[in-house]
Design a protein that fits this description.
single chain; 266 residues; five-stranded mixed barrel; 9 strands; 26% strand; binds hypoxanthine
Amino acid sequence: MERLERAAARLAELGRPEVAVILGSGLSQVLPLEGERALSFSEIPGFPVPTVAGHAGQVAVGEASGCQVLVQRGRIHYYEGYDLAEVVFPVRAYAMIGIKTLVVTNASGGISEGLHPGDLVLICDHINMLGGNPLRGPNLTRLGPRFPDMTAAYDPGLRAKAKEVARGLGMVLKEGVYLATLGPSYETPAEIRAFRALGADMVGMSTVPEVIAARHAGLRVLGISCVTNYAAGIATRPLSHEEVVKTTQSRASDLGRLLSALIPQL
Ligand code: HPA
C-alpha cells in the first residue's frame, strides 16, 4: 500500500482524470493528447519498467475530445518475469488517484472462424490461463474485497456504448472472449484447438491481470482487441511479433477514431 501511495502521489501531480486508457503492442500513438504531461514508468516511484520492444512504458495525462484522460503507453507482461502483483501495480495506482473507468487495448490472435487479422473486437469476457491471479496474497482491503465478482467484468453498459459509437462511425466492432496465456512463445496448433473448445475467440498474453485488478478496485472496464493474426494452426504461416506490430499499426487510425469518439461517452 505504501508503494502504491507513493506512485499515486506522483501520478496525481499530472492531474486527476477519471478515465484511463492502456494502449498495448504497436498502439501507443493512437490517442494523441492535448496539453499532455507525461512520465516514463521509471520516473514513477514503484512502477515496474517494461522490457519489450514496442512497449515504451509511459503515463500521460491530457485532453482527448475535450476530456481529461490518463493514457498508459505500453504495459508490463507476466512473461517478462515480473510477479502478477507487479503487472497490475499501475492499474492499482490509477484506482488510487480516482480513475473510475479503464479502457484496455491489446493485440490478439484470432481463434474463432468469424475473426480475421485487422478486426477490432470488443472483449465481452475472458478466460485466465496464466496460471496465477494478481490478487493472490494478502488482500488489499482498501482497494477491494477478498473475493471480487467477475460476472460482468467487461461492463455491459460500456460495451453497448462502444457498439453504438462504432456504428455511428461506420465501423464494425465484433465481440469475443479473450483468453490470456503466459507466453512468450506463441501457442501450438493443439493448444489453439483446446482453447477454441474452451470457448475462446481470441488469444493473447496480457490484459486479464489488469482487468482482474481493476474489477477488484471497483473500476468499470471496456476492452478492445485488435486481431493481428490467425492463431497458430489456422493459417499456414508461422507467427511473428513483427506481423503483430504491423497489423496493429495498420488499424491504429480506426482504433484512435473509435477511442476519441468514445471518451466523452465514458
Ligand atoms: N497468440 C498470443 N498472443 C498474441 C497473438 C497470438 O497469436 N497475436 C497477438 N498476440
